[in-house]
């Protein structure tokens, strides 16, 4: 079975084509600047060189058509006929309370996705657009939706409800949803495989640390708490997002700076975080470089980031009543040696002992704790696309 995995953003499209017989990636690529000038597709077929195709790409229909054309191309294609694509798996950001698992897409599912647009106005519309385009370009090919929020639907009400009048949960669905669920699911299962322990009995904290960042407590294979909330703004300090803050700051700033709700939304989502504190960049690599050169604001931004992650690890260990493993993943988690060391410093009381030599690793699976560390610490590169492909295969095989 060959499964095409699509991740449609507002102006971008990531894709991978999997051969599910051995889970190899036949081709992968990225369409950039959809609906913007200077748009292009970068296509990498297997172990062959990357190909860049520049073209006007006004919408997702054109983008997906270009992906299909690239996959079928005489020189850099990897399939001979469209019929070789047996299914399409879509990353969908927000499933709300409607979806606790990946699902075969039908009219009822599409209605539910459209009903969730107000919960993810930036993400769900391009996800939906990608599904509709595939229906036109690949009629009859089954499509599966895999939701960022689904993994967290196992949280109990005491973990997902906010301390506001209950009627707002009932009327508007205001609650903690959590995100990055596909990534947290993949690395938590993978660490159990590496440790040789049953997933159903393990207590794991997964740290998905990238430009967007979240921490999840996974007890017995189920998400019991996660740092992102109603939106991806809550929780950790991130690249441009503020993370946790006193809600009273919002009306205070609105009054002092004559800001509108849209201004506040832009400030907290796009001008805060590492960028806002450091004044340098939302890219942790730039901030780390400035910090190493003595920039105090950059140093402070990194300290806040590490401290927030450390607090969540401590809180989640307490919430689960124990801890077997901590996993670092995503861009910062997989590649920043100093960030991992800074987060783990002071957690020895939990039984975490970092091995500095083992921690000197980037972008590959590695145990970074000492042999006598009670709590094992791993770096595991995430693979959300593979999870989507596996879920798609499992669902389609049952048809």
TrEMBL record:
The record marks 180, 241 as: Transition state stabilizer. Pathway: Metabolic intermediate biosynthesis; acetyl-CoA biosynthesis; acetyl-CoA from acetate: step 1/2. It holds the Pfam family Acetate_kinase. The keyword Kinase applies. It is an enzyme of class 2 (transferase). InterPro entries: Ac/propionate_kinase, Aliphatic_acid_kin_short-chain, Aliphatic_acid_kinase_CS, ATPase_NBD. This is Acetate kinase. It comes from Anoxybacter fermentans.
């Amino acid at each position: 079975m060959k499964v095409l995995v699509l991740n449609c953003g507002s102006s971008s499209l990531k894709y991978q084509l999997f051969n599910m017989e051995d889970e190899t990636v036949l081709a992968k690529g990225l369409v950039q600047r959809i609906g913007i000038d200077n748009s292009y597709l970068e296509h990498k077929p297997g172990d062959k060189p990357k190909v860049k195709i520049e073209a006007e790409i006004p919408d997702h229909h054109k983008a997906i058509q270009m992906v299909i054309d690239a996959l079928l191309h005489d020189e850099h294609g990897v399939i001979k006929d469209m019929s070789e694509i047996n299914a399409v798996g879509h990353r969908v950001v927000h499933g709300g309370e409607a979806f606790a698992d990946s699902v075969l897409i039908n009219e009822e599912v599409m209605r539910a996705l459209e009903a969730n647009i107000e919960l993810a106005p930036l993400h769900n519309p391009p996800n939906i657009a990608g599904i509709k385009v595939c229906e036109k370009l690949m009629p009859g090919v089954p499509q599966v939706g895999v939701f960022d929020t689904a993994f967290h639907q196992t949280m109990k009400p005491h973990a997902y409800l906010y301390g506001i009048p209950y009627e707002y949960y009932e009327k508007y669905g205001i609650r903690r949803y959590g995100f990055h669920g596909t990534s947290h699911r993949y690395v938590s299962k993978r660490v159990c495989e590496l440790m040789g322990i049953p997933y159903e009995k393990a207590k794991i904290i997964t740290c998905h640390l990238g430009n967007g960042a979240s921490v999840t407590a996974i007890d017995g294979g189920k998400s019991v708490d996660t740092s992102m909330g109603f939106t991806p703004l809550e929780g950790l300090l991130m690249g441009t997002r503020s993370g946790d803050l006193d809600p009273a700051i919002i009306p205070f700033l609105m009054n002092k700076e004559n800001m509108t709700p849209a201004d506040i939304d832009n400030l907290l989502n796009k001008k805060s975080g590492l960028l806002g504190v450091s004044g340098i960049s939302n890219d942790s690599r730039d901030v780390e470089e400035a910090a190493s050169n003595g920039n105090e604001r950059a140093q402070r931004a990194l300290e806040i980031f590490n401290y927030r992650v450390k607090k969540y690890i401590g809180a989640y260990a307490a919430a689960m009543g124990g801890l077997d493993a901590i996993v670092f993943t995503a861009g910062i988690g997989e590649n920043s040696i100093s960030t991992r060391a800074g987060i783990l410093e002071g957690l020895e009381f939990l039984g975490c002992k970092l091995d500095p030599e083992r921690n000197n690793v980037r972008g590959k699976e590695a145990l970074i704790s000492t042999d006598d560390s009670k709590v094992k610490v791993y770096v595991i590169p995430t693979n959300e696309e593979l999870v989507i492909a596996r879920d798609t295969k499992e669902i389609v095989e049952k048809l």
